[in-house]
Amino acid sequence: MKKIQFNDVFKSYEDNQILKTIDFSVERGEAFVIVGPSGSGKSTILNLIAGLIKPDSGEIIMEGRAVTHESPKTRNVSFVFQDFALYPHMSVYNNIAFALKSKRMNKTDINTRVDTIAKKLHIEKLLKRYPNELSGGQKQRVALARALATEADIILMDEPLSSLDTDLRLKLREELKVFHKENNTTLIFVTHDQTEAMTLADRIMIINNGTIEQIGTPREIYLEPMTPFVGKFIGTPKMNLFKNDVGTLFGIRPQHIKISDSHLGEPVVITSIDYLGQENWVHFEYDAHPFVLVTTRVDLEVGQTIHITMDESNIATFN
Ligand code: ADP
Ligand code: MG
């Protein structure tokens, strides 16, 4: 049975169509990541799942039951917002325990639950502190702990790591992944960061302008992008797009263009090179299109002619 299902869900604000009749489902226990540019409708989807807003039409089904018009309370969903806010006048302990107390859980059970989750998120030594005595990263851990402690059926996270610096983001991402594997909750995680999406997801849904571009595993999304948007949105540097004489659009990833040692292959002239250290991006023009390839070679120079080959199996065709 599907855990969450959107059937023809449409949402507008006045004249603006925010979600244009979308259909998708999230499996029980899945880490489902929604990724897309700012303003594409990601937060709107989470708000619909949580019941904070209602669709204009269509149905939202949870475990086979239509919850479309039900209040948030009946859904057993916990939500970590992008602008997470801790209760400033409460200790870390009470911040985490708050939702449990309002569920009338007994004191001993609350204690155990808070201790367990605090250890998992490495904040067990901070339980007596107040939010203004915490760093940004510690606050974010507390916000995550608060959401995870409720042991909701469904956990929604709206760009919860975006305000953290790179190291911390990476660390929390890995911890979240482990946590999800251990607990098997349904996690719906929103981000605009493709790396975050690729590393965290069982499946990714790419959304653009209120429509679903593609749903698939990270591997499928990378190797078999179904639209030019997906090809360009996932992968760094962006997928090269080019047209043939008939006007059909093709795409090839910069990682899949090889520099040939012999003079077999197409001659192209290097226009610029970005040295990233672990890899280098070599820019050139191909068939009057700007192209880029990725190589570990460091012996190349701007103005040099190289010969490139592309394996047909790596070329995506878009209709
Ligand atoms: P994302 O989370 O992908 O950045 P959102 O789902 O927050 O995007 O918003 C999608 C679009 O809906 C945006 O254009 C936004 O301005 C608009 N929008 C969101 N909430 C409201 C609202 N309450 N009233 C009017 N427009 C809204
Ligand atoms: Mg958002």
UniProtKB/TrEMBL annotation:
GO terms for molecular function: ABC-type ferric iron transporter activity; ATP binding; ATP hydrolysis activity. It holds the Pfam family ABC_tran. InterPro entries: AAA+_ATPase, ABC_transporter-like_ATP-bd, ABC_transporter-like_CS, ABC_transpr_FbpC, ABC_transpr_MalK/UgpC-like, Mo/tungstate-bd_C_term_dom, P-loop_NTPase, Transp-assoc_OB_typ2. Residues 4-234 form the ABC transporter domain. SMART domains: AAA (SM00382). One of its GO terms (cellular component) is ATP-binding cassette (ABC) transporter complex, substrate-binding subunit-containing. Keywords: ATP-binding, Cell membrane, Membrane, Nucleotide-binding, Translocase, Transport. It comes from the Bacteria. This is sn-glycerol-3-phosphate import ATP-binding protein UgpC.
